[in-house]
Amino acid sequence: MKICMTYAVCILLLAALIAPFGAGxxxxxxxxxxxxxxxxxxxxxxxxISDKNRTGYLQYGVKEVWRTYQLFLSFNxxxxxxxxxxxxxxxxxxxxxxxxxxxxxxxxEISRSPGGYLKPGNYLCLDCSAFVAWIYKAVFGLxxxxxxxxxxxxxxxSTLHYLGSSFAYLRKVTTDRGVTALFRDVWSKIDxxxxxxxxxxxxxxxxxxxxxxxxxxxxSSDWGHIMFYGGDGYIYQSSSTPQVMPDGSLNTHxxxxxxxxxxxxxxxxxxxxxxISDGVIPEDFDGWNVPVDFASLSTSxxxxxxxxxxxxxxxxxxxxxxxxxxxxxxxxxxxFGDMKPLYLADGTTxxxxxxxxxxxxxxxxxxxxxxxPEDLYEFSATRNTYSVRKLADGVHYIWARDAAENVSQRLTxxxxxxxxxxxxxxxxxxTLIARFSENGKEIVTPLVKAKEAxxxxxxxxxxxxxxxxxxxxxxxxxxxxxSASVFVLGVCALAAPAALARKERGAGG
Length: 509
Fold this sequence. Notes:
By secondary structure, the chain is of the alpha+beta class.
């Protein structure tokens, strides 16, 4: 009996050691797609742009990261910028393609004006968290982003969003199994003195799975770094700190694949291994492997998402509220594919799209002029696909915008005893959608969940000719989109509910 008890205790102890890791949440097919896509993305993005500019499109930077995260290029002409408070902030880390035979040469370069190597031009600048967020959006449709209400844009998550308790609501999703955590924290190590390096993970490397997200954070400053595991002891990261090669020279690519064991310089107070929970990504979905055509990237149009969102539901109460308004309920969508979207626990915010090339609804804009604002960032950023407004008698114009700056067709809502809704078509004509009164509603033209081609550039007159050639990306995107399907009013199609790089510090997130 005593031997049996001892054996049972050993089994429980072993289970306690193994249980935190559990099974890998990604299938073998998903892991293969993730690694294959990332390898090509890094290789193509780091390739010389031209004979005159031998740097690559991929750079570590933070300028307009809310747009580069949607595959817009940003024009970079300075290493430092002055913030509204008057302080200097380094916004671009660029390596001289001629290379550096030692770290001292690099340190000398960044100590002199303008603060580092600079070749002005259009680049795809991604910091550590934007790089991880882009890869997981491109491959699995996961949107590790949040609404930035200060400037009405979409921001990729920082390390705080992956770990902070105040952002826990962003990490709760509704799957077929109910509300569950987006990630499982399968391993963590905490040292208040800040002595933990990512290389410490080598001790549990045999338990790491391809796709595990590795997050380091310093509690005193909230500064951190993020990367993901690529298998065989390698990680993928975007780092502001260059990699020192065995011969002492520097790797001139800041977005790279690198051995986990080499990450010894930067230290943190805590490091976590996050693994996507079961049920978040369908097991029969291997992921998208759509290559980025870097030569076709633009500063004014997203190569990832050029399809406008659409309204799929509108209802107007027949009776007036006590304050003389009528309640208008709207639903918009940016999901046009066959895969069932994944929602946050709120049931209305999409965190995993239905097809490749969907950035998600950013917000809904209403005015009384009928003209879009010149600055599309006047759209109220919520990421919520559902909106309830109380509108007074008169004419109101409504648009939906997605995170890639595409704008829907305009709805005209006229509030009165009998309220009407019309939609502006591509040729400028107005189509009557419905009438609403105390006697009920009359559907004249069903709202259509259609593949719209309107973009913010076209809406604001900033046109750009994409040319006659159809890129490989566009061909794959077209095959991913579902054909148009009709959604009748009243039937909702949605599911219910940074400082200088320093050798001893490493990269910021």
